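User: Can you predict the 3D structure for this chain?
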Amino acid sequence: MRIAVDAMGGDQAPEAIVSGAVAAARELGADVVLVGREARVREELARHRGAPALEIVDAPEVIEMHEAPAMALRRKRRASIVVAVELLKARRVDAVVTAGHTGAAMGAGLLGLGRIPGVDRPAIAAVLPTQTAQPAILLDVGANVDCKPHHLLQFALMGSVYANRVLGTTSPRVGLLSNGTEEGKGSELTLAATPLLRASGLNFVGNVEARDVFLGVADVVVCDGFVGNVALKFGQGLALAIRNIVKDELRGLRGKLLRLYLAPLVGSILRLYRRIDYREYGGAPLLGIDGVVIVAHGSSNARALRNAVRVAAETVSHGFVEELRSRMPQAQDITLERTP
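Assistant: Here is the predicted structure, written as structure tokens:
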């Protein structure tokens, strides 16, 4: 299996990206293709003595985080994310991983690969830890700010297929993110989406609140991209704050004494942080694009990138895209039946 990695995407590119790609090749046996400015990527790769031989595909342009994605994609036809998607379209690779501009990744995927038939709006799905052993999927977390009810139905179906095929969740429970669990609570969008989800044949459990996401009340939680992105960033910020507070408390003489006398507890706290650390989850799949594209966090370090490659390989090996192609007509049929 060959995975194209956008070597120029991310706040720490190309250093952390190349390091993560090397780790993925060494530890996971992944066949990684690095896409980016060849001389720069080759220079960085040379720092890793004894690294597996990785193919480099030259892409002289980079789409920066501040650029408007639509305009940048038109102007920079040889940008690293564009070239990586072209490799996937040509079937020279099986998946693409990027920590770069999310909008550019979505745009390049749509232009280069198209949507799976039956998908109106591809969505970004975040895999999140819960208090149970099974993670939850939250989508959409940023691709679609304004949604219609049938979009949430499509998100629910796509998330359920991903949870089942890739995460191994049997009959995933689907929840609709709202401001209360009671029937009848929510915005016009969530109220209109409820009957579609009830008629979907999915394991719909009704409304869930934001706090329920991490409690494992549902395996798939659907919402529009504005709400989902806010919820995701809030959770990431909370996890980071907890880590920093613990680090501050363990500094200095007082911290050394705490580590000495509370060593088992400190170890538990550190294991807890690893469970909620986004770097362990790698990246978010773009669901609905006709191919496997994984978007890692913009601040991804080498470990996060390595895990994003793992996510890409798992998504391909479990046949997610093929299964979704066969399931999407279900959402279309329900929409047609329930639309006046």
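Residues 123-236 form a domain with the Isopropylmalate Dehydrogenase fold (CATH 3.40.718.10). The chain has a mean pLDDT of 87.
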